[in-house]
Amino acid sequence: MAMTPDVPTWVGELDRLAPARDLEVDRRFAAARLLVTVGGTPQGQVTVPLRAGRATAAELSLAVAALPAAGTVAVAPSAADPVTVVVATRNRPESLARCLRAVLASDHPALSVVVVDNDPDDERTELAVRAAGSDRVRYVREPRRGASIGRNRGLAEARTEIVAFTDDDTEVDPAWASRIAGAFAADPELACVSGPVLAARLGSPEERAADVALAWNKGFTPRRFTLAEPPADSPIFPFAPGLFGIGANLAVRSGAARAVGGFDEAMGPGTPTHGGEDCEFLVRMILAGNVLGYAPGAYLWHHHRPDQAALNTQLEGYAIGLGSFLAKVALSPQGRSVALRRLPAAVARLRHISDREAGAGDAMPDSGLLERGGRIARGGWAYLQRSREVRRNGGAVPPMLLPARSALVPAHIRRAAEAARVRTGAGAHVGPTAVPAPRPDRQAEAEAGDDRGAAELARNSAA
After folding, report:
1. How much is the pTM?
2. Euclidean distance between CA atoms 298 and 251, whole angstroms
3. Which 8-state DSSP code applies to residue 70?
4. Are 410 and 262 in contact (CB under 8 A)?
5. Cβ-based neighbours of 267, under 8 Å, separated by 6 or more
6. Is residue 353 within 8 Å of residue 376, measured between CB atoms?
7. 20 to 30 Å CA-CA from 47: which of 23, 366, 385, 442?
C-alpha cells in the first residue's frame, strides 16, 4: 500500500500504457495518490508530491518506475456470467444514488441490482432507486433493520449464481462486476471472492486517518485461502479479521452462501454490535471447507468518514464489532478450541492494530488500550443479548462450524427465495427450498454455549 503524508491528497488513476502527461489538480492538494494500472489491471499505488497542485510527466514516470515492469502484470480475468449486486441501505439516498450511478456504469452485460431498504424512515431511498431510471435495479423494502438482514434478503432475492455485495458509500470500477465473474470462471472451486477497497478521497485529516487505521486495501496480489493451505503470513488463520476482505467488496456463489446460513443477523451495522458480520461470515465460509479468493482486479472506491465525529463513531463501532466476533468464537465449542491455540498470536495482532491506529495521524481519535478493551467487552455482551433476541424472532444466527453433511438456511431466506421463484416462474430457481435444518441437539448446544459464555463473562467482569 502506498504511504501518504498527512497532507491534503488528491486520489486518481494512472495507466502505464497511456501517453505520459502532466498532472494538474486543485492547488490545495499537496500530494497525489495514484492507482497505477496496466491496460486497466491494477498493479499498485504510488504517492507523488505536488507543487501548487501540479506534477510533471517526468515526476510521475519516476514514481511509477519504482513498481515492477508493466510486462509482469497479468491481465485480470473477466467473464460475462450473470451477476446480482446487492446494496443494503438505510436513510442515505444521496450516497446510494452515487453508488448506483457507478454500478450502472459497469461494462458487464448481464448485471442486475437489488437495493434492500432496511426499516426506512421515509420514501427517499425508493425515490432514489426510481431516479436511477434503470430496469436493472429492483427495490426491496425490508421491515427489519440491520446490514446482515439486508444482505440475507438480497441473497434470497437474487436469481443468479454469483451475488456481489457492496455498500452505499462506495463507487465500483466499471470492470468490477466483470472481473468478479472472471475470478469465479477462472477458478471453479472458489465460493467467495473479495477485492481491494481503496480510499475515494483523502482531502481531510479524518479521511487520511481512517485510511491508515482501517487498512482495507489488501494489496494487488491474487490470493487463495483454504483450511488445507494456511497462509504463512497469518499465524491466527482462519480467525483473522480483515484477512479475507470486507463486506463492502464481497461476492459469493449463492448456493455456498445459503448453505452456511448467510450472514449472522445478530451482528453488523444497524444492530447493537455495530460490525463484525463480514469477518464472521468469511471465517465461517472457511471453516465449512470453502475456498476463498482475493481478486485485485475487482476494486472499488470507498468514501471514508470526512469529519471527527463520524470517524470516532466508525472506529468505536468496529471495536464493538470485533468484540461481538470474538464472543461468537468463544461461544462456539469447535471455534473456541481452535482459537485458543492461536491466543498468543491474536494478542500480538491486536497490538499491531493498536500501533497502526496510533500512527494514523493527528485526526485519529484518542483512545487507549483500556478504552478499546472496554468497547470489545461491550461488543461481547451485545452479541450475547442480540443473538438470543434474533433466535427468538426466527432470524439467522448460524453456528460458527456447521454439522458435517448438513446445510443451514434460515427459514426467512427459504421463504423469500420461494416467493421469488413463484413470482418469476418455475424455471427461475433461486436457491434450495428444502434444506436440512440443524439437529435439535445442535441448537440446544448453541443455546447452552451462550449461557455458559454469559456466566464466564460475568465471572471475568466480577474479577
Report:
1. 0.84
2. 10
3. G
4. yes
5. 148, 273, 275, 276, 277, 280, 321, 324, 325, 328, 383, 386
6. no
7. 366
In terms of DSSP bridges, do strands 197-199 and 9-15 run parallel, antiparallel, or are they unpaired? unpaired
Under 8 Å CB-to-CB from 384, ≥6 apart: which residues? Answer: 327, 331, 450, 453, 454, 457
User: What residues have CB less than 8 Å from 229, skipping those under 6 apart?
Assistant: none
Average pLDDT in the 129-152 region?
97
Distance CA 191, CA 255 (A): 9
How far apart, in whole angstroms, are the C-alpha atoms of residue 112 and residue 119?
A: 23
Closest CA to 16 of 2, 30, 36: 36
Ordered DSSP codes for 134-163 = -TTEEEEEESS--HHHHHHHHHHH--SSEE
Give CB contacts under 8 A, 24+ apart, made by 120-127: 120/90, 120/91, 121/91, 122/91, 124/91, 124/93, 125/89, 125/90, 125/91, 125/92, 125/93, 125/96, 127/93
Residue 285 half-sphere exposure toward CB, CA atoms < 13 A: 32
C-alpha cell at 143: 421491515
Count how many residues are written for the chain. Answer: 463
DSSP 168-214: TTEEE-TTHHHHHHHHHHH-TTEEEEE--EEES-B-SHHHHHHHHHH
CB atoms within 10 A of CB 245: 27
Residue among 194, 211, 346 nearest 279 (CA): 194
Question: Torsion-angle region of residue 263: left (phi > 0), alpha (psi -120 to 50) or beta?
Answer: beta
Cβ contact 142:153 at 8 Å = yes
Cα radius of gyration rounded to whole Å, the chain: 22
Residue in the block written with cell 487520511: 208
> Cα–Cα distance between 313 and 316 in angstroms, integer?
5
Q: Which residue type does 213 have? A: A
pLDDT greater at residue 338 or residue 252: 252
Tens digit of pLDDT for each residue in 198-254? 999 999 999 998 888 877 888 999 999 999 988 888 878 888 778 899 999 999 999
User: How far is it, in rounded angstroms, from Cα 190 to Cα 305?
Assistant: 33
Name the one residue in this structure whose C-alpha cell is 441473497. 155
Calculate the CA dihedral of residues 281, 285, 287, 290 and round it to 10 degrees.
-170
Backbone angles phi, psi at 191, to 5 degrees: -105, -15
